[in-house]
Amino acid sequence: MKVTVKTFLVLALVLGASAFAFAAEGSTAVLQPRAAGHVIDSLPLHLLLAGMKKAQAPRVVEGELVLSVSGPYRSVAAAFAHEGFAILHPYERNRQGVFILAYPVPLKWNGNLEYRVIIDGVWSVDPTASETRLDLDSGVELSVVRVPYLSDLHLGLYKILGEDGKTARFIFRGGKGESVTVCGDFDNWDPFILEMTETSPGVYELEMPLAPGKHYYNFIYRGEALTDPLNPDKAARREGGEVSVLTVAAAD
User: Fold this and answer.
1) pLDDT digits over 110-159, tens only?
2) CB–CB of 105/64 below 8 Å?
3) Domain ranges of the chain
4) CATH fold of 2-146, please?
């Protein structure tokens, strides 16, 4: 649904900015439903957002960048440089009347996050941010916030398949100087052929393309067959024990 910027502002005020995210495209705006998958399951973060009585300086709490704005405004949103300022992330108003936003810090992000806030349709720097930077190409002043590096090497976060959807990127962490292999249905469960490379002390990696379908595999470490600690999908083997499961979708 494409609308003019004027219509976009009217819709934001009528429908409520907390229900939508907006992507700007030049002089038009594309109205998009806000992603429903982002749920705040941290009690400390939830209590912080709900109990905030006035706007505070940006900070990261449990992997979320917390932004806030106070004032008699109707709608507030933020747009980030690394997204090309294409998506407006709407703030929600808590019971104290403070506009709040919990934005997930991108995984494996090195450096600062730069952004602008949009208050009642007017783009500006974040009034609570202590650091800004003048973009010399556009002449626009950006708010800057320092964020920590967040690794994706955690169960349920790491994406084993690459962007092409078929290249598996296996990672295993163990002792230094070990011999670690991958075996599965893709090599007839040979425990010696697919040896992983130690890319840093105790970190072993292997990339390989996989055919479409469901694949079963294990890591072989110190003579034991282990499931993938980064893959939550597992299945039981007829011979006993468990294997990891990785599904490669068929090409369109």
Assistant:
1) 889 999 999 999 999 999 999 999 999 889 999 999 988 766 666 666 88
2) yes
3) 2-146, 167-248
4) Immunoglobulin-like (2.60.40)
